[in-house]
């Protein structure tokens, strides 16, 4: 057994039992881990699963050929009952599960009814589990947060566990843990294009998002507009730098909703903002937007600009979340 697996195995069990945790790398362990440590991990998560979801569900999840159990990080916890002294009791950390059924994944977090995940999310979980390897979720070994998330995966006849004392990264175990905790894929940027759902049709109201509007903005803006009155009230603020206010683009709000993404005012040229796509899932809509800034070697005029993008999507009575990607343009 490697030193990497020894360190992780001890850390995972210490985190689960609430013991002091030394600085160790995050990661996974499999067949090489001592059976007593894997048994301790299984017992701990199974007990928490049984307590929050019931014995029948716990038995079903533990017997599934492919299943994932995640205990949320401590910073995800919500306040519970308020004590007489005004302080709040903290609710137990959620234990969320998902298992592979015949055609897709089934999911529950005990606070919501059991449901089947959408097909795109199911395909993404399948892809991530198929690509797991022993180097996933390794860290620099300097993190000691015992309140990090804990992930247990059963797949292809084996079990692996991962701890995240440094928080989530961009590795496959982090993605699996985030997806199962949320019950959906919040950001499709790191997934292959063929796995991401196609998204809703977009009608772009801005031909050049880098310089379409001249009004100053002190902070970024991500918002939705669902009525003609709100649009007419919002429109002048996008054009405060113009001598004459142009007419607002026509929108049939019985059929469309507007999404607006705006950067704060930039002191140099070259910045852009673009709403890439809007994806529908059981929890609502996710709008993916990219903010791009010029790199240090890029040229650009010193004129002020307020990059803005506006798109119209089909009017749906669904909550909208934003997923923001920030990139820096490389210049020769």
Name the poorly predicted regions. Answer: 1-34, 137-141
Q: Assign an overall shape.
A: elongated
Question: Structural class of the helix and strand makeup?
Answer: alpha+beta
Strand order of the largest sheet: 1-9-8-2-5-6-7
Mean pLDDT: 77
- Major β-sheet profile: 7 strands, antiparallel
Number of discrete domains: 2
Give the percentage of residues in beta strands. 25-35%
Given the structure, what is the number of helices? 6
Rg, rounded, reads: 24 Å
Assembly classification: single chain
The proportion of residues forming helix, as a percent range, comes to 10-25%
Order of helices and strands: HEHHEEEEEEHEEHEEHEEEEE
Taking the alpha carbons of the first and last residues, their distance comes to: 47 Å
The tally of strands reads 16
Give an account of the 3D structure.
The protein is of the alpha+beta class and 332 residues long. The chain folds into two domains: 3-182, no CATH class; 203-329, no CATH class. The protein contains six helices and 16 strands. It has helices at residues 3-17, 35-53, 55-63, 119-130, 172-182, 228-234, and strands at residues 28-29, 67-71, 79-82, 88-90, 95-100, 105-108, 115-116, 150-155, 158-163, 203-204, 221-225, 256-262, 272-281, 284-294, 308-314, 320-329. The strands form four sheets. It has a seven-stranded antiparallel β-sheet, sandwiched between helices. A four-stranded antiparallel β-sheet has the order 10-15-12-11, with helices on one face. A three-stranded mixed β-sheet has the order 13-14-16, with no helix packed on it. Strand 5 and strand 6 (105-108) form a beta hairpin.
């Amino acid at each position: 057994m490697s030193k990497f697996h020894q360190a992780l195995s001890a850390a995972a069990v210490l985190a689960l039992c609430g013991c002091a945790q030394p600085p160790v790398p995050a990661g996974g362990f499999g067949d090489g881990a001592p059976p007593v440590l894997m048994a301790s991990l299984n017992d701990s998560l199974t007990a928490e699963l049984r307590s929050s979801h019931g014995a029948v569900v716990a038995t079903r999840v533990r017997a599934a050929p492919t299943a994932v159990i995640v205990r949320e990080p401590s910073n995800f916890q919500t306040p519970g009952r308020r004590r007489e002294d005004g302080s709040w009791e903290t609710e137990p950390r959620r234990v969320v599960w998902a298992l592979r059924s015949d055609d897709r994944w089934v999911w529950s977090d005990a606070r919501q009814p059991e449901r089947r995940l959408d097909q795109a999310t199911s395909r993404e979980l399948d892809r991530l589990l198929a690509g797991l390897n022993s180097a996933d979720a390794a860290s620099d070994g300097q993190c000691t947060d015992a309140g990090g998330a804990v992930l247990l995966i059963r797949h292809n006849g084996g079990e692996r566990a991962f701890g995240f004392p440094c928080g989530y990264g961009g590795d496959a175990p982090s993605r699996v843990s985030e997806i199962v905790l949320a019950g959906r894929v919040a950001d499709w940027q790191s997934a292959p294009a063929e796995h991401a759902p196609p998204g809703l049709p977009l009608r772009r109201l801005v031909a050049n998002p880098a310089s379409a509007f001249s009004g100053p903005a002190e902070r970024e803006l991500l918002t939705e507009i669902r009525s003609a009155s709100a649009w007419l009230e919002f429109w002048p603020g996008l054009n405060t730098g113009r001598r004459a206010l142009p007419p607002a683009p026509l929108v049939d709000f019985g059929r469309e909703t507007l999404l607006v993404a705006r950067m704060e005012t930039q002191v140099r040229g070259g910045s852009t903002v673009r709403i890439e796509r809007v994806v529908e899932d059981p929890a609502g809509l996710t709008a993916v937007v990219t903010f791009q800034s010029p790199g240090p070697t890029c040229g650009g005029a010193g004129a002020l600009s307020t990059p803005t993008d506006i798109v119209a999507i089909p009017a749906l009575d669904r909550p909208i979340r934003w997923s923001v990607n920030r990139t820096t343009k490389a210049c020769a």
